[in-house]
Design goal:
By secondary structure, the protein is an all-alpha fold. Helix content is 70%, strand content 0%.
């Protein structure tokens, strides 16, 4: 009986996640084009036809329509159902860590914003200020949800990575984007300085690996979006930071 109840609860969390993921697709598409995310129904980017409600069911509609617009037959990018699926799985993962609580809500909201930042940065090589400001909401809420992360630790977290990034950018133009710096400042308050260092390390490790691949392939474009890798680091630190840090220190008997 308990297994059945847990299964229903996880399914419920997954449905919430994919529905939110459907909205995130709207944000990801509209914000760079400065289209309101609060007004107007979803539309096909090819023929501009309004998408009917029963054609806008997360995951299911993409499979039902076989990845094509119901009006013009234009292809629907696979990224749309993938964002929905990933958001649903992230909702489940956060639930597994924090249970059904305010902590789950705060971390899930942060994760949703980080997904938007990741996809938009991949698309445009920019991180919208509006999304960084939006991230301040869960960051401030985390102060009350996670009181074990002290105020001083959070204040140091604001500058421990963002300040060196800013200084480096002053000496090496375009070393980091302004959005990356602001992102790490907000994340620093949310995570505290220890987990902020971990988040940056993960981001640099992943971003560096991708940069090496691009250099080996000798691609014409020498620029790459760094924000997505920072977002992965931030989310990892938010979920498992303390566990990873304790494991690392344990290797040295600390």
């Amino acid at each position: 009986m308990l297994v059945f109840v847990n299964s229903i609860l996880y399914l419920y969390i997954f449905v919430i996640g994919i529905v939110v993921g459907s909205f995130l697709n709207v944000v990801i598409y509209r914000v760079p084009q400065e289209i309101s995310v609060a007004k107007g129904r979803s539309f096909c980017p090819h023929c501009q036809a309004l998408i009917k409600g029963y054609h806008n069911i997360p995951l299911f509609s993409y499979l039902w329509l076989r990845g094509k617009c119901a009006d013009c037959g234009g292809p629907i990018a696979i990224r749309y159902p993938l964002v929905e699926l990933f958001t649903g799985l992230l909702a489940i993962l956060i639930f597994a860590v924090y249970g059904f609580s305010f902590a789950w809500l705060v971390v899930f909201v942060a994760g949703a914003i980080l997904i938007c930042i990741t996809m938009i940065d991949f698309d445009t090589m920019t991180i919208p200020n509006g999304l960084v400001i939006a991230l301040m909401a869960p960051a401030l809420a985390s102060f009350f949800i996670f009181p074990e992360v002290g105020l001083l630790t959070r204040v140091i977290g604001i500058v421990v990575i963002s300040l060196p990034m800013l200084v480096l950018t002053l000496f090496v133009p375009d070393a980091f984007g302004g959005g990356d710096i602001k992102l790490m400042a907000v994340a620093g308050f949310m995570l505290g300085w220890g987990n902020t260092l971990l988040a940056a390390f993960i981001g640099i490790l992943l971003g560096g690996a991708v940069a090496v691949v691009l250099l080996v392939k000798k691609t014409a474009d020498k620029h790459m979006a760094f924000g997505p890798y920072l977002c992965i680091g931030i989310m990892t630190a938010l979920l498992f930071g303390d566990i990873i840090i304790r494991w690392y220190l344990g290797l040295f008997g600390l």
